Every structure is written in structure tokens, then in C-alpha cells.
């Protein structure tokens, strides 16, 4: 009696695992959330925050230029997540385009998860406590506003950006050629 032993190499196991749609989706979504963390850190580091100046009579004033820059954090968030969304869409197409409808849904979900993660990470590490800082400020102090996403529609920039390369690649990516046998094509009679 012989014992048949099936031995798979690590390379074979990884290739078999990669062929699984569920594995590809899980890896893609995990990478999307990781990119969201990086985008949130980048947003909190790069977003310009205007500041109020406390006058001698203890009033807080903001100049006109700083007042218009209150939306700069939203613009920075939209730009950062839009670029990440384009990247997620292109990568989603490359690894999921042979998986059918999954190539549409998963990059949209991944991009939305990325944007939500970026938003929450940015709020977590960005400046906060504006009201408390303003209440304890003295004359001459400069108090920066909190990092905040005032236009929640900016959360949709990443999914819209992610679907763009998928639509373009679906329209212009060459279809694989399928060879038909001679008897099916009507040739050879």
C-alpha cells in the first residue's frame, strides 16, 4: 500500500490563492483602507487651516483671505482622494477585469472605504478642540480652526475618480482573441 502525498510548492499555493476572486477582493479592499490611512495622514499634513486673531477687546476676527480659505481643507481632501481614486480604479481594472461585475462594484466600494478612512484618520490626527482653544485664548493669540470636512460630498470624489479609468479601459482595452476551431467557423468544407 502506498501513500500518495500531494505536495504543493509555495509558489503554486500563492498562484492558486491569487486565482480566487474572494482573495483578490479581500486584498484589494485591505489595500484600499491602507491607502485611506495614508491619504488621511497626507490630508491632515497638507490642508491649510485659517486662523482667528484675538483682539484686545477679546473678539475673534478673521481676515477676508483667511475666511475664503476655510474651504481649502475640502479642496485638499477632494484632490488627494481623487488621485487615490484614480489609482484604485486603474489597479482594480488590472486585477479584476476578468471577474465580471466585480470589476465595477469592488473598486467603488474600495474607493468609498478609502475616502471614509481618510476622513476619519484626518480628523483623528488633525487639529481639534477649536472652541476650547478659542475660549482660553488671550489677546493677540492666533487660533487655527479645526481640520474638518465641511462638504461631505467630497467623500464621493474617490468613487467617481475610481470608476473613470474602469470605464475608459472597458471601452478601449483590447478583447482577448478567441481561436475557433476550423469546423465551427465553417472553413474547410
Describe this structure in words.
It is a single chain. Strand 1 and strand 2 (60-61) form a beta hairpin. The protein has eight helices and three strands, in the order ααββααααβαα. The radius of gyration is 26 Å and the shape is elongated. The longest helix is centred in the N-terminal third of the chain and has 26 residues, at 21-46. Helices cover 61% and strands 5% of the residues. It is mainly α and 189 residues long. The protein has a three-stranded antiparallel β-sheet. The chain has helices at 10-18, 21-46, 64-68, 72-96, 102-125, 130-135, 157-172, 182-185, and strands at 51-54, 60-61, 142-144.
Distance between the termini: 54 Å
Rg on CA atoms, Å: 26 Å
| Main sheet strand line-up | 2-1-3
Helix tally? 8
Large-scale geometry: elongated
Poorly predicted segments: none
Share of residues in strands: under 5%
For the secondary structure, the number of strands is: 3
**Topology order in helix (H) and strand (E) letters:** HHEEHHHHEHH
Briefly note the structural class of the backbone: mainly alpha
Q: Write down the overall mean pLDDT.
A: 85
Largest sheet: 3 strands, antiparallel
Q: Helical proportion?
A: 55-70%
Short account of what is shown:
The chain is mostly helical. It has helices at 10-18, 21-46, 64-68, 72-96, 102-125, 130-135, 157-172, 182-185, and strands at 51-54, 60-61, 142-144.
Amino acid at each position: 500500500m502506498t501513500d500518495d502525498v500531494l505536495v504543493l510548492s509555495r509558489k503554486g499555493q500563492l498562484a492558486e490563492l491569487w486565482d480566487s476572486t474572494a482573495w483578490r477582493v479581500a486584498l484589494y479592499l485591505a489595500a484600499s483602507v491602507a491607502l485611506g490611512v495614508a491619504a488621511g495622514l497626507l490630508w491632515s499634513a497638507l490642508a491649510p487651516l485659517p486662523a482667528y486673531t484675538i483682539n484686545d477687546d477679546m473678539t475673534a476676527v478673521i481676515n477676508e483671505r483667511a475666511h475664503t480659505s476655510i474651504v481649502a481643507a475640502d479642496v485638499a481632501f477632494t484632490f488627494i482622494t481623487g488621485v487615490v481614486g484614480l489609482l484604485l480604479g486603474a489597479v482594480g481594472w488590472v486585477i479584476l477585469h476578468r471577474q465580471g461585475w466585480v470589476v465595477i462594484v469592488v473598486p467603488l466600494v474600495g474607493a468609498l472605504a478609502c475616502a471614509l478612512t481618510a476622513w476619519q484618520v484626518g480628523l483623528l490626527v488633525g487639529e481639534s478642540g477649536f472652541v476650547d482653544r478659542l475660549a482660553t485664548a488671550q489677546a493677540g493669540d492666533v487660533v487655527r480652526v479645526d481640520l474638518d470636512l465641511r462638504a461631505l460630498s467630497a467623500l464621493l470624489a474617490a468613487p467617481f475618480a475610481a470608476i473613470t479609468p474602469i470605464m475608459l479601459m472597458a471601452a478601449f482595452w483590447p478583447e482577448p482573441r478567441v481561436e475557433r476551431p476550423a469546423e465551427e467557423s465553417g472553413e474547410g468544407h
